[in-house]
Design goal:
- It is built from 16 helices and 14 strands.
- It is α/β, with parallel strands linked by helices.
- Strands 10-9-11-14-12-13 form a six-stranded mixed beta sheet, sandwiched between helices. Strands 1-2-8-7 form a four-stranded antiparallel beta sheet, with no helix packed on it.
- Helix 6 runs antiparallel to helix 7.
- The longest helix has 21 residues.
- About 11% of the residues have low confidence.
- Bound molecules: zinc ion.
- The site of zinc ion has 6 residues, from loops.
């Protein structure tokens, strides 16, 4: 079959053409092509982040580059032409970075397509809605070209929740929830994606299932808690002296907590991310709303310039800006995740984000302070507290108008002692246990939840 490499210009630039371009540059000094030829950009790093939700490929380079892309069918391929770059070992590295279990990419081919144009051909396992964009330098990163390969049909967080509950005695209740009450929250999607078709008759739940009464799913379902491990993928979060990444620690703690919650007879947990990949802040909120979570808990680890800073803290949303300079600094740091992780959402998602921001969140904040106080009290039994009251700041991830939402800074990863603690399974387990106790206290004291009223 015809190949995109074969059908395009030869891989090796004919020398006469290159000479002609350079010669032209001598007489036309303003020709914009010339600086690129003189200083072909260098790809300094290549990273891939495969996940069920989407696979990301990041090319990091010392200059901003332009890229064009198109998709081909039969078989599905994504072709990306990067302008102003020559083949190098870093970019050839990409070939070995593709993992066999990548849900979207089967393999990649790299070639010099035209003078200064490198062509990447991704052979795909399924049709994709690609998002290709560049990011300016931030933090540790130089310029980045980001290729996000989303499935053509957006994934519904509700379906992920059901898939997770296959052998769960509560599967039937969750199934009922999925069929009866999800329309109010949109499925997060990106430009070019279709939404999954409505499924009135999904495959029946396993035989263990408890039949749930129709139209009354809220009251008869378990308490659903959305756990949100901060950062992920391109965004490592804070990093400790020993190289511990916040994104890894908080995922481990969230997974431990999920296990504990799922072992409760009347509670289930949903993870906004279950692997090492980047999830935009408002998508985390949308996922929690889609599964109609009763509570949203974002899990983080703090950092400060002075290694002596230590202790846990619990945060609720502030409607009118942060209460202190330190709070503002922390909120900015956590909200910067989208800039570091890289985001290019379509207008659809921006509108949803705006709606979330515009809605009144007063009742949500009251409940968040209540549940946060219970959790803070429990954490105080196992770790020093950085502040012994709930703090407030404008974290983007806490902005669901209808779900009590808190953010826990479990400890300071920048404090060597606490970094060491955060790495141990025993301490992670203690944190998870304390959070669960606080959550149980809250629901015991407040059986009439805001969301169910
Ligand atoms: Zn964080």
């Amino acid at each position: 079959m015809a190949d995109v490499f074969e059908s395009a210009a030869p891989m090796n630039t004919p020398v006469p053409l290159r000479r002609k371009l350079i010669a032209g540059g001598c007489t036309l000094l303003v020709l914009p092509l010339i600086p690129k030829l003189a200083h072909a950009a260098t790809i300094v790093a290549v990273r891939t982040w495969p996940a069920d939700e989407y696979t990301r490929v990041t090319l990091e380079m010392d200059t901003e580059l332009k890229a064009e892309h198109f998709t081909l069918d039969k078989p599905h391929r994504l072709v990306v032409d990067i302008d102003g770059v020559r083949l190098s070992s870093a970019i050839n590295d990409l070939v070995s970075r593709i993992k066999p279990n990548d849900p979207y990419i089967r393999s990649v081919r790299v070639g010099q397509n035209r003078p200064n144009v490198v062509r990447l051909v991704f052979d795909l396992k399924q049709d994709v809605a690609p998002q290709v964009f560049t990011l300016k330098p931030i933090g540790e990163y130089k310029y980045r070209l980001v290729l996000d390969l989303y499935p053509k049909v957006a994934q519904d967080p509700l379906m992920a929740l059901l898939k997770d509950s296959q052998n769960d005695p509560l599967a039937g209740v969750l199934e009922n929830l999925a069929q009866n009450g999800a329309a109010e929250a949109p499925i997060p999607s990106v430009k070019g994606q279709r939404l999954p078709p409505p499924e009135p008759s999904r495959s029946p739940a396993p035989s263990l299932a408890i039949p749930a009464p129709q139209g009354n799913s809220r009251r008869n379902r378990p308490i659903l808690i959305a756990l949100d491990p901060g950062h992920g993928g391109e965004d490592p979060g804070a990093t400790g002296k020993r190289g511990t990444h916040e994104k890894d620690i908080v995922l481990q703690i969230a997974q431990r907590l999920k296990k504990m919650i799922d072992a409760q007879p009347n509670m289930r947990a949903y993870l906004t991310r279950d692997r090492d990949y980047f999830v935009p802040l408002n998508v985390r909120v949308q996922k929690a709303r889609r599964v109609q979570a009763d509570l949203f808990i974002s899990i983080h680890a703090d950092a400060w310039v002075k290694p002596s800073a230590r202790g846990s803290s619990v945060w609720a949303l502030s409607e009118h800006g942060a209460t202190s300079t330190a709070a503002r600094w922390l909120a900015k740091k956590e909200n910067d995740a989208d800039l570091i992780g890289g985001i290019d959402l379509g207008s659809h998602n921006r509108q949803v984000a705006q709606v979330l921001l515009d809605l009144s969140t007063g009742a949500q904040i009251n409940d968040s302070i209540k549940v946060g106080s219970q959790i803070l009290q429990e954490i105080g039994k196992i770790n020093r507290l950085h502040r012994n009251h709930i703090e407030r700041a404008g974290f983007a991830v806490l902005k669901a108008p209808d779900i009590p939402s808190i953010l826990i800074e479990t400890a300071f990863i920048s404090n060597p002692e606490e970094e060491a603690l955060l790495r141990t399974p025993a301490h992670q387990q203690k944190i998870a246990s304390a959070v669960l106790s606080g959550v149980k206290d809250y629901f015991a004291a407040n059986p009439a939840l805001a969301r169910r009223a």
